[in-house]
């Protein structure tokens, strides 16, 4: 029942060619400690499914992505992730760009072990033109309505970052928005969760000690492994613990305009352990002191 493991042990479950879902939203609550461990691995040819942030650009820059399935890829205050943009413009990766709701619907279909879910979203747009694998279907009822059949987006592995977890795989998200992390967890064969705080056991019947049980968005049996990673969302935010590191994100984006910029970023921040990374960005205390943005 003890699911505690290291980031390296979690990433060891990911093999080349797999479909990997990354939770969070843009520059918010991304499992960056797990992403950095994946960047240090030899894994390649991944299909990455995400509401994308810096993890997409980094994985593309490292040559680990074959295909992207996404609703957007943005750093929010920096509208377009630069390494993703370079890969997209160069045609270096296959892409399936979806409406945000369609992406959620595909994950929900996979979580319910259905082949598809019907929706009106996407009809009358170029989404189907650019995604010919997405079909339409007629309602079998008297309305005979034409609907889009959003196919399930099944994941081999999901990677998430949460505020609190325990060794059993219970999780709690205390940020203002859980995003669609529960959908990623349920759509995956294996789900690995990194956390800011680790409890021996979260008692969901005692909200005075462990917080609102509604913060537990998905059942522990979906969780394969738990990685204790304080500061593990950096440089993205993890409310209420800390905000995003806009200075680091700006420097990262600037590297995309420089010759050898990705190699320099890798040498400065990705060689060594997660502890080495945190030391290079000012230490855990500096991460936890990052102010939260008003948006």
Domain unit count: 2
- The termini sit apart by 39 Å
What is the H/E order?
Answer: HEHEHEHEHEHEEEEHEHEHHHH
Q: Outline, from the CA principal axes?
A: globular
Model regions low in confidence, pLDDT < 50 over at least 5 residues: none
Which second-level CATH architecture of the largest domain applies? Answer: 3-Layer(aba) Sandwich
CATH structural fold name of the largest domain: Glutaconate Coenzyme A-transferase
By CATH reckoning, the class of the largest domain would read Alpha Beta
- Mean pLDDT, to the nearest integer, reads 95
CATH superfamily of the largest domain: Glutaconate Coenzyme A-transferase
Largest sheet: 8 strands, mixed
Number of strands: 11
Q: Radius of gyration over alpha carbons?
A: 19 Å
Helix residue percentage: 25-40%
Strand content: 15-25%
Organism: Pandoraea pneumonica
Protein name: CoA-transferase
GO molecular function, one term: CoA-transferase activity
Pfam families: CoA_trans (PF01144)
Tags for this entry?
3-stranded antiparallel sheet; 11 strands; 295 residues; alpha/beta; 2 domains; NagB/RpiA_transferase-like; Glutaconate Coenzyme A-transferase; transferase; CoA_trans_fam_I; globular
Please tell me about this protein's structure.
The chain has 295 residues and is of the alpha/beta class. The protein has two domains: 7-98 and 154-201 and 213-279, Glutaconate Coenzyme A-transferase; 117-151, no CATH class. The protein contains twelve helices and eleven strands. The strands form two sheets. Strands 1, 2, 3, 4, 8, 9, 10 and 11 form an eight-stranded mixed sheet that branches. Strands 5-7-6 form a three-stranded antiparallel sheet. A hairpin with a 7-residue loop joins β6 and β7 (146-151). α3 (54-61) crosses α4 (82-90) and α5 (100-111) crosses α7 (181-187). The termini are far apart. InterPro entries: CoA_trans_fam_I (IPR004165), NagB/RpiA_transferase-like (IPR037171). It comes from Pandoraea pneumonica.
